[in-house]
Amino acid sequence: MSTAVTAYAAPSPKAPLERTTIERREPREHDVVIEIAFTGICHTDIHQVHEGWAEGIFPMVPGHEIAGVVAAVGPGVTRHSVGDRVGVGCFVDSCRRCEYCRAGEEQFCREGAVWTYNARDPRTDEPTYGGYSTHIVVDENYVLRIPDGLSLDEAAPLMCAGITTYAPLARWETGPGSKVAVVGLGGLGHMAVKIGHARGAEVTVLSQSTRKRDDGLRLGADHFHATADPAVFTDLADAFDLILNTVSADLDLDAYLGLLRVDGAMVNVGLPETRSALLLSTLVMKRRSLAGSNIGGIRQTQEMLDFCARHRLAADVEVIPAEQINDAYERVVASDVRYRFVVDVASLRE
User: Fold this and answer.
1) What is the pLDDT of residue 169?
2) Chain-wide mean pLDDT for the chain?
3) Model-level pTM?
4) Do 184 and 326 form a contact (C-beta atoms < 8 A)?
């Protein structure tokens, strides 16, 4: 048995999203039925709809920044109760057996994490559908608790933008005495600045222009530099312990790596659609590292939510009705949002 719910979906690659109806499964023993309140729009949603990284499954219902309230639970559920405020991030299942799943790093599951959308349920081979919908059904082990100190609209983007930036800042142990540069001040970058500042690091924003300088300083950055000025790469040479690259654009990696101290690391969380290149001597001569980071596991995502609640951190959001999703996609591509669009799912119920 299944239940029909309203959703917004892309019927084919690059097509505008439109209102439709999808089927959600009846809850299994350990399933949680979530009435979605808000869903963030991540640039990944646009990449997936446009098949920028790989072939997609259509019709596609994007959305992996989900916040809502538990509407029903299966008979075996112990972690969540009806009425709880909860969230769902980038994946909704994994094998649970491999060393990565057992270590709480489900995003690296050897059998492949089951992504919240544009994937297939391994039990049924049916496509997964994301948060641009009124309800979602998820196993309790992949549902997060949203602390009371966070509003649901501002918490939704934390399920991706929050954990994507929190994880590398924690992994590279940033804190008092650390000098961190954040490349890009968008949906990811603005959370990196907030979290880095809350961890006690000295944070510098590296952006193409000074257009967002006031915002960067307001969000917690100590310094702001426009990379359009070539002098920045000379003046800031050997300045940082960590560079967190949040943009999906092609960068001159050698130039940015030159900003790192000995043993510094440049960690990429943005994914360009083309290959990158660099001179290995840029790494070798100062024992620098070029690394990547991919969201975080369930345990660390809950840790991030609790951290944000303690420090009163949340995403800066612009809440929109579902009928504005296609316009929002165009504005995201044009960097015309400060700093995350969030869909008010109540507009899907009207």
Assistant:
1) 98
2) 96
3) 0.96
4) no
